[in-house]
Amino acid sequence: MIPAKEYIREKYKKKRALLSDQDKMDLDQKIKARAIDWLKSGDFPKKVHLFLPIEKQKEVDTFPLLEWFWENGWDVYSSKISSESLDMETIFLEPNTSFTTSTWGIPFPNDYQEVEVQEFSLIFLPLLAYDRSGYRIGFGKGYYDKFLADIDFDPVKVGLSYFTPEQSLPYESHDIPLDFCITPEKIFTF
Ligand SMILES: Nc1nc2c(c(=O)[nH]1)N(C=O)[C@@H](CNc1ccc(C(=O)N[C@@H](CCC(=O)O)C(=O)O)cc1)CN2
Ligand SMILES: Nc1ncnc2c1ncn2[C@@H]1O[C@H](COP(=O)(O)OP(=O)(O)OP(=O)(O)O)[C@@H](O)[C@H]1O
After folding, report:
1. Nearest ligand to residue 80 Cα
2. What are the binding positions for substrate in this chain (predicted)?
3. What residues are in contact with ligand 1 under a 6 Å CB criterion?
4. Is 7 a known ligand-binding residue?
5. Under a CB-based contact definition with an 8 Å cutoff, are residues 81 and 157 in contact?
6. 135 assigned binding-site residue
7. What are the beta bridge partners of residue 76?
8. What is the pLDDT of residue 78?
9. What is the pLDDT of residue 87?
10. What ranges make up the beta strands (E) of the chain?
11. Distance CA 56, CA 49 (A)
C-alpha cells in the first residue's frame, strides 16, 4: 500500500528531529563532500538555484555549498516567497551576502537583487521524503512544483537527503520528479 502524503511528512519530520546536532553535522559534511565531487565531475554551466536551509526543521545545510559555488565563480540564485500567492520570485545572491531568518525560518539575504528567472542549469530542491522514482514530498504547499512548472527550460533537479528513498510515494500529475538525490552514503539517479 502507498502511504498517504501527510503520514510521510510526519514520519520524516520525526526522523530528522531525532538526529543529534553532532549526527547532523557529520551527515551534512558527507553530503557536502559528495555534492562537490559530483559537481566537479559534471560539465554544468555555472548558474544554480539553491534553497536555503530551515535550521529549526533540520533541513540539509546548503550554506557550505553556497560558499563553494561563490568560491568557484558560480552565479547563485534563490527564491523569495510571496505572502499572497504560491509564486516565488528569483533573487540573485552576491558573494558574501549575510542572512537573517524570515517566514518559516527560511534564511533571507540582507542584500539582494530581484531578477527575472535565469536559465540555471541546476536546481537544488528542499524535501522531506523522496522515492525510487525521484518523486518528492515537501512541506505541502506546492511552491517548488509550481516554480518548476512555470519555467520554460529544464534544469537538472537535485534533492539532498539524510535518508534513503521510500519504495514508492503517492504523486499527482503536477509533481515533477528529481533527477538525482545526494545522500551521505550515495547518490541516487532516477
Ligand atoms: N528551505 C526551504 N525553502 C523553501 C521551502 C522549503 O521547504 N524549504 N518551500 C517548499 O515548498 C517553500 C516554503 N514553504 C514552506 C512551507 C511550510 C514550512 C514549514 O515549516 N511548515 C511547518 C509549519 C510551520 C508553521 O506553521 O509555523 C510544518 O509543516 O511543520 C516551511 C516552508 C519555499 N522555500
Ligand atoms: N503546477 C501546479 N499548479 C497548480 N497547483 C499546484 C501545482 N503544483 C502543486 N500544486 C498544488 O500545491 C499543493 C501542494 O502540492 P504537493 O502536495 O505536491 O506539495 P509538496 O511537493 O509536498 O510541497 P513543496 O513543493 O511546497 O515542497 C497541492 O494542493 C497542489 O494541487
Report:
1. 1
2. 52, 59
3. 51-54, 57, 59, 81, 104, 106, 126, 138-139, 141, 143-144
4. yes
5. no
6. no
7. 48
8. 97
9. 87
10. 47-49, 75-81, 88-92, 99-101, 107-109, 113-115, 122-125, 129-130, 136-137, 156-160, 180-182, 187-189
11. 22
C-alpha–C-alpha distance, residues 185 and 91, integer Å: 32
Residue 178 in contact with residue 123, Cβ under 8 Å?
no
CA of 170 to the centre of ligand 2 (A): 12
The total number of residues shown for the chain amounts to 190
| 3-state helix/strand/coil string of 99-140 | EEECHHHCEEECCCEEECCCCCCEEEECCCEEECCCCEECCC
Q: Which residues of the chain have pLDDT under 50?
A: none
The annotation status of 105 as a binding-site residue, yes or no, is: no
- Separation of CA 149 and ligand 2 centre (Å): 10
pLDDT of 170: 93
| Nearest residue by C-alpha to atom 19 in ligand 1 | 104
**Within a 13 Å sphere around the CA of 86, how many CA atoms are in the beta-carbon half?**
12
Q: What is the pLDDT of residues 140-155, one digit of tens each?
A: 888 999 999 999 999 9
Instruction: For each of the domains in the chain, give its residue range(s) and CATH number, in order of start.
Output: 5-189 (3.40.50.10420)
Closest residue by Cα to atom 25, ligand 1, is: 104
- Write the pLDDT tens digit of every residue in 78-111: 999 987 888 899 999 999 999 999 989 999 999 8
